[in-house]
Design goal:
Layout (H helix, E strand, L loop, with lengths): L2 E10 L13 E9 L4 E6 L3 H9 L10 H5 L7 H11 L7 H22 L3 H4 L7 E9 L4 H13 L4 E5 L7 H15 L4 E5 L7 H11 L6 E3 L7 H7 L7 E3 L5 H12 L3 E2 L8 H14 L3 E2 L7 H12 L7 E4 L4 H5 L12 E3 L12 H7 L3
Parallel strand pairs: 4-5, 4-11, 5-6, 6-7, 7-8, 8-9, 9-10
Antiparallel strand pairs: 1-2, 2-3, 4-12
Bound molecules: magnesium ion (MG).
Length: about 375
Amino acid sequence: MKITNVEAIILRQPGEILMIGDGSQDTVLIKIETDEGITGWGECDSSPYVVKTIVDCPPSHVVCRGLKDILMGQDPFDVEKIWNDMYRGSYYYGRRSVGIHAMSGIDIALWDIMGKAAGRPVHKLLGGRINSRLRAYASMLMPDTEEEVVQKAKEYMAKGFTAIKFGWGALGESREKDIRLVKAAREAMGEEADLMLDIGYLWKNSKYAEMMCKELEPFHPYWIEEPIISDDVQGFSRLTPKTTLRIASGEELTGLYEFRELIEKGGVDIVQPDMSRCGGITIAKKIADMALLNGIELCPHAFKSGILMAASIQLLAAYKGTPLLEYCSQETVLSKGLLKNHFALQMDGTVEIPDTPGLGIEVDEAAVAKYRIS
Ligand SMILES: [Mg+2]
């Protein structure tokens, strides 16, 4: 099988893009076609415009090439070789950040193609399904008032969720406001449900984070995500031994070197690679193994469309730890509207793992055409 075309497709919701922590307002999909008529889909959580440039740009020299130029004519089953070809071919401008984001979307699309060609779901290719279904947590922005927090918490508990993450939004503005909002969430959700908090690295430094973790202990959050910037590995290494709360981080990291640093030196309790940023399914599988080897959990970050959620589901199906699925609960046309078979939450708070070939999704090409801007 040979790759015959690679396309980076930019989609955007109609109207204004708001400067809030909602990455589902636009996206870039990767569509890879082959000479056997099999098409694979991927997605990147990044600047769509920079990703498209990285995919499409002509070569400058051997370690400064566009990714489409590297992929054309290759066999999708050579996924590990292709990953290394892309890494080496983008070495001068890539290696970290958006260079790896673009590779991630391509890697997801290649796994989709391999699964479709083999007539097997991706989790079969990853070693087989270990988990029968996946517990999901609703993931949403922290509202500005306690009343809104209570309303959101009750709304999503009624849908069947047994865990909710409030992140970004109004969190991190002040000590007093953080405590008030978290108290309201805990009281609305009851004692049994799991409450996660994503601080969006606004707690200034590890000392302040240590103090805030102490303040929030009475509300027993399941984890505290990104209290400080994920680059501050020393800060994490000071914070983690000082709190009883689980500390989570890693959604912005790319490639194995950065994850090794955070896991081994930062000492976090939960690592959160985003499959559309970390290097794709190929790298996320290795991060999962690294996490388990170090006695910590992996919970993939996913706040885009159903394509990224599908990649997370396939990885978690074959994950040996305790699987937990991030379920993007922002109601944008892209977060829910790109698949004909978007993943429905079951009343027991879980999501079913598809057994159909590849990622197990059916992309709605009419919706892609409708929201496409480039
Ligand atoms: Mg986060």
